[in-house]
Automatic annotation (TrEMBL):
Documented EC number(s): 6.1.1.2
Family per similarity comment: Belongs to the class-I aminoacyl-tRNA synthetase family.
Species of origin: Candidatus Blackburnbacteria bacterium RIFCSPLOWO2_01_FULL_40_20
The reaction(s) this protein catalyses: tRNA(Trp) + L-tryptophan + ATP = L-tryptophyl-tRNA(Trp) + AMP + diphosphate + H(+)
Top-level taxon of the source organism: Bacteria
Any Gene Ontology biological process: tryptophanyl-tRNA aminoacylation
Protein's UniProt name: Tryptophan--tRNA ligase
A Pfam family hit: tRNA-synt_1b
CDD domains: TrpRS_core
Amino acid sequence: MDKKRVLSGIRATGRLHLGNYLGAVKGMLELQKNPEYETFYMVADLHSITTPFDPEQLRRNIKEVVLDYLSAGLDPEKSTIFVQSHVREHTELAYLFSTVETVARMQHLPTFKEKVKQHPENVTMALLNYPILMAADILVYKAEAVPVGIDQEPHLEISREIARKMNEKYGLDFPEPQRFATKGESVPSLSGEGKMSKSVEGSYINLTDTQDEIKKKIRAVPTSSNVGGEMSPGVKTLFKLLELFAPEDVSKYSTDYKNGTLKFVVLKDYLSEAIFKELQPIQKKRQEIQADPEYVEKVLKMGQAKATNVASKVLSQTKKEMGLL
């Protein structure tokens, strides 16, 4: 390969929010512009069914994520954009990879334990195998860079572990993928607790939110009544978002905070405007793409063909070395 390959994807659990945009999509865009990389970006629908889901809602969510990808700037002429389940090689390679990983190793992952607490009635084999499927997603393209948030690092370690085991055992040449970090890799929740998440209502701003919706959500961020002392979690969230959307103004508002002269409503409304300013062109482009559903279908068919072309060769090579061909 002349170029290094990149693979990333976002679960189809709803429209993308600022956390997805800053933590993953911005990294995708950065790598798409870099001529040294060949980029593959998927909608992770198979990962979306590891927790309870509604089939009709899933269908809608897949389309929403594709629309968000394209409107945010992912270009089908520069990147391969596809739906994970449309490329069957992912699941077949995942099964082959499952032969070199143990149940105990999967059960000890912090992400698995967290999901077990969240969905104690839905601890499935799909949930347990999530990191193995993720390894297949990456390695079926022999991707070396993965633009994802820092919370995915334990899963990436599994991918590297599987690559080493497959290479040692069968003489294959899988790379050990590394995380491509972005400035917004950990975007805080609007509640001031944890990170922005689609599963926590009131914690996020969607890329499709109107200016009024953004303003309302930002104004609802809890702030302490006193300024000048140690920042409360909500205030820290506001300054983190300011750093990401208006870095040139952080110093001014920080000085006001320390001096005890900062008015939170002024900061919140200014931040709301800065966020909407960045999202406005994305929303405009989304409306244009939405008006042409045939274009979206064309993009996905083209992406499926490109992805399958690469993935089928890697799968065949793996099966051959394992004695299956």
